[in-house]
Specification:
It is built from eight helices and six strands; from the N terminus they run αβαββαβαβαααβα. The protein is 33% helix and 10% strand. It has a six-stranded mixed sheet with strand order 2-3-1-4-5-6, sandwiched between helices. It has a single domain, classed as Rossmann fold (3-Layer(aba) Sandwich).
Length: 287
């Protein structure tokens, strides 16, 4: 298949004269209110479970922290990212809640983070563990073993998962920074996970992170995200490599060097979050 991503970064990224996807830049408060008002209609679940997966170093933890920051109105760091290694910094299966008001009043959706996928067979999370996680068989706190999936006699194995334990939306997180290239091995593993989620009926989206690091035009102004030829090209490559339609791919800028939140960055994150929540809501209602 060949590498799904180019090895060289574009030296002079260009922008289209008009955006190829429209986003209302002055609707942050409206989008935020929609998220705040959301509650699952299915009484069997109190929270939509969103599973983040993808190659090591792609920005899964950073994406969650950015969502948390957007909803809290300040830069947060619940999930510990790593700024040096491209190996997975996440080792355990961990679910994160976002507080809506004070302690004890979380939003009705949670993000579960897992170890990243690696191109090597004996490194990173195993595809079989991701499948078991989607089915609800893995409990919080499980430490992933790259060379073996969780066993049924493990204390962290959930033998009888209910709807609330299952994954309701699968989010594939991929870095737009071309220093993190999708290899053939990555594509094979991601495709296997995608097909397994399809068989389970789980909706899937992709998040393209680090767009500001990959594209100078976006770094200059986040509002160029849907004018950027580079971002558009990366989305097209994800579509070809993994089969995820472009309408299910959302480019975002993670908070990484900022000490305060920004309305335009929040707008892009909220646009993706609203659609992730909608997909999860549809899933739990259609079962």
């Amino acid at each position: 298949m060949g590498n799904a991503f180019n090895k060289k970064r574009r030296s002079s990224p260009e922008t289209f004269p008009e955006p190829w996807r429209n986003i209302p830049w002055n609707h942050k408060n409206t989008d935020l209110q929609v998220v705040k008002d959301y509650h699952p209609r299915n009484n069997e679940v109190q929270q939509i479970r969103i599973l983040l997966h993808g190659p090591s170093g792609s920005g899964k933890s950073g994406f969650f922290n950015s969502v948390d920051s957007t909803l809290q109105g300040r830069v947060t760091g619940q999930a510990a990212p790593d700024a040096i290694s491209h190996d997975s910094f996440t080792q355990k299966y961990k679910t994160y809640k976002i507080q809506k008001g004070g302690p004890g009043t979380p939003y009705p959706f949670v993000f579960t983070d897992i170890m990243g996928l690696d191109r090597d067979a004996n490194r990173g999370v195993s595809v079989e563990d991701i499948k078991l996680a989607m089915m609800g068989h893995i409990k919080d706190g499980y430490t992933f073993n790259p060379i073996a999936k969780i066993s049924e006699d493990d204390n962290y194995y959930n033998k009888e998962p209910t709807l609330k334990d299952r994954v309701h939306v699968l989010v594939c997180v991929i870095s737009a920074d071309t220093s993190n290239i999708l290899s053939d091995e990555h594509v094979e593993k991601l495709r296997e996970v995608r097909l397994a989620a399809r068989d389970m009926g789980i909706p899937q989206v992709a998040i393209l992170t680090k767009i500001d690091e990959a594209c100078p035009e976006v770094k200059k102004d986040i509002k160029n995200v849907y004018k950027s030829m580079y971002v558009k090209k990366q989305m097209e490559k994800i579509k070809v490599a993994l089969g995820i339609p472009e309408s299910y791919i959302f480019p975002v800028k993670n908070y990484h060097s900022e000490i305060d939140t920004d309305d335009d960055t929040d707008t892009v994150i909220l646009s993706a979050l609203r659609r992730i929540i909608n997909f999860g809501e549809d899933f739990v209602n259609n079962l």
